[in-house]
Amino acid sequence: MEEKGKGSERWSAAIGNLSEMASNLESMQKLLLKKAVFVDEETFAKASLSSEQARIIKGYVKIGEQLGDIFTKTVNGDQVLEQRVETLERELDAAITAAARSRSEKRQAEAAQKAAELRSQEITRELENTTKVFELHMEELRAKQQEIAKRDSDIKVLEAIIQTLGGKETASSSRPSQ
Q1: What is the sign, positive or negative, of the torsion defined by CA atoms of 11, 17, 19, 21?
Q2: What Å distances lie between residue 84 and 56, 75, 91, 130, 139, CA to CA?
Q3: Does residue 170 have a pLDDT over 60?
């Protein structure tokens, strides 16, 4: 950027020098016109040459100014391009940062999902174990109910036997002894 600034200063100085030369030649030309005298051919040729040189220098000045304008526009254009590049670099940095944050959030979400899946599997195992334990308890309860039902049945049989035996005893005790 410093080189562009130095180049711009040099162009400006060169254009200033050319402008000053053009102005000096123009002054000389006006002076010659005011004090025009008839001179010999050699002097006229020198004056014509000076006049022609003045026109050429004016042309160079004009070209120099145009080149200076082009240079200035180029420098300004480069500055605009540099600003655009800087803007794009900032946008790229922001996009990279956003992508990194997104990847990080994705990893966190995946880790949370994996933890949830592991917890779900653990809960499923616990439920399966609880179901097995419950089934075992149900089998025990059925076995006990069957045992209770069998004992109830045995008790009823024994009660029936007792009543039958007790009925005979009461019948024999209620008979008079002979």
Answers
A1: negative
A2: 41, 14, 10, 67, 80
A3: no
